[in-house]
Every structure is written in C-alpha cells, then in structure tokens.
Amino acid sequence: MADRSVAITGATGLIGGALGAHLRAQGWTVRGISRSGDEAIRWDPAAGELDGAALEGVDAVVHLAGENVAGRWSDAKKRRIMESRVKGTTLIAQTLAGLERPPSVLVSASATGYYGDRGDDRLTEAEPSGEGFLAEVCVAWEASAAPAAAAGIRVVHPRIGIVLAGEGGALAAMKTPFKMGVGGKIGSGEQLMPWVHIDDIVHMIAFALERSELSGPFNAVAPAPVTNAAFTKALGKVLSRPTFMPLPGGLAKLAMGEAADEMLLSSTGAVPSVLQSLGYEWRHPELHGALQAALD
C-alpha cells in the first residue's frame, strides 16, 4: 500500500490524539494543523490564515477542532462555540477547494446535537435538524464545508454522540461523583443519550476515509441509544457504586442554565442507519462493555 497522508485539526484533542495514533499504526503519515508546533501545518482560523501550500497533495483532511461546548453558556461562550466551527470549517473548505492537488476526502466533524430534543423518536440521518442552539450550530457547521464539496472533494460529517473514554471527555467528568457514591440520574432519567466508545469513533473516521461511497452525514454512535437512567445504572455497576443521588432538572438548570437543557436534559435517540447499511462492525456495541473498556 502506498504511503498515504492525512492532516488533522484538533490533533491533540481526545479524538484527534487517538485517531492520529491509530492512523500512524495503519501506515498513514499524520500531520497536525495547529496554531503552534514545529511539525504542524500552521493555521489561525480567527485571522483567516491557513498554510494551503503545506496541504498540497495531502490525501485526506480530518477537521475536529472547535470551542469546547462544556460549561455554562454566556453570550460570549456561545459566540465562540459558533464562530470557531463556522470560521474554521469555512477556512478549511475554501483552502482545500483552491488547491491544485486537493485531498480526495474531508471528514468534518458534527454532533448529534443536530437533532435537538426529540423525545423517544429514533433519529436516522434522514431526519431534519431540530431546534435549539446546538442544532443551529450543527447546521451552520456542516454547511460551512460546502466549498469543498462544490470543488469535488468527498465531504463526510460524523455526527458524534457522547464519547466514552477513560481520560477526558464526558466520562471523566461523570466518574468522580459516581466514585464518591453521589451519582444518579439527571431529571426524569428518561432522556435518550446517544453514546460511542472512543475506539469506535476512531474506527468510524478511519472507515469514512476508506469508503468512497460514504459522503454526507452519518450518526457516529453505538447501535442503540440508552436512557439516562439506564446509563446511570450501568456506570454505577461498572464502578461498584450506588446511584441513588438524582440531580433534579431544576438544579441542573440553576447550575448550567441553557446548557443543561440542551446537554443534560434533552433526549436525542440518534441511530447509526448509514453505518449499519455499509456493514460497519462495532468494537463496543453494548453500553456495559463499553464503559468497562473505557474505565479499565
């Protein structure tokens, strides 16, 4: 197999770091796109700067960078969340579209927040976007990659669920109170949570790089979403801790404001219809095993 090259934004993040290690092991040459670092391809999305010459001839680009959505959302925080995704993706897409030797594929991240709060519905990629700030962000985020698609580059949008990893991400924040015995369901506990193990999101992106018939959005999640109550029970079982300390929805809203409604209390039953149709094989399809693997 000829040596292939990939450039990654967010290469030092939770997903980017694991993806880079996996692709290197598969024989890819991996370069980060970063504001700093001797080896990196330089960019400054806020200033609209990206070293296009360094991207000439790269086989693939994976775009994962963006302002962290965790935490209370002030107006300034919401602006950073939106602008980091729209400006960064637009800059990547326009730069790639203008290259003499552009990559064959751009994998540009999105999120299951695209669907908003949809109750018990099971949501395939064919569903329209929902309501709320995160849905607006995801719509604008995906649309920002249009210049690359218009230039004939295959563009793929993994709509990523809650990533389960031992270090970093949502699970790292959850496990501390659970280990202390003060974990519990949030609100009613009936809200659906789309989740994915870190190994699977890495393999899904690698799958998207390889499969030329895959374009547009795909739900980067486990085969079945679970309720928050079921997730809580499974996490408590893996950690051998009780889970009888529920967090009332009102208290969550008091602590996190609008972010609580959209990140903790909304119900998003995203299902991976596209991946299933293409024969993707999950490494961790069941929640209990996925939690065990992440926490071990």
Key structural traits:
alpha/beta; Rossmann fold; two-stranded parallel sheet
Explain what this protein looks like in three dimensions:
The chain is α/β, with parallel strands linked by helices and 296 residues long. It has one domain: 3-Layer(aba) Sandwich (Rossmann fold). Helices cover 39% and strands 19% of the residues. The protein has eleven helices and 15 strands. The chain has helices at residues 14-25, 75-97, 133-143, 146-150, 169-179, 198-210, 228-239, 249-256, 258-263, 273-277, 287-295, and strands at 4-9, 28-34, 41-44, 49-50, 60-63, 105-108, 110-111, 122-123, 154-160, 162-164, 192-193, 195-197, 216-220, 226-227, 269-270. The strands form four sheets. Strands 1, 2, 3, 4, 5, 6, 7, 9 and 13 form a nine-stranded mixed beta sheet that branches. Helix 1 crosses helix 6 (198-210), helix 2 (75-97) runs parallel beside helix 3 (133-143) and helix 7 packs across helix 11. The longest helix is centred in the first third of the chain and has 23 residues, at 75-97. It starts with a strand and ends with a helix.
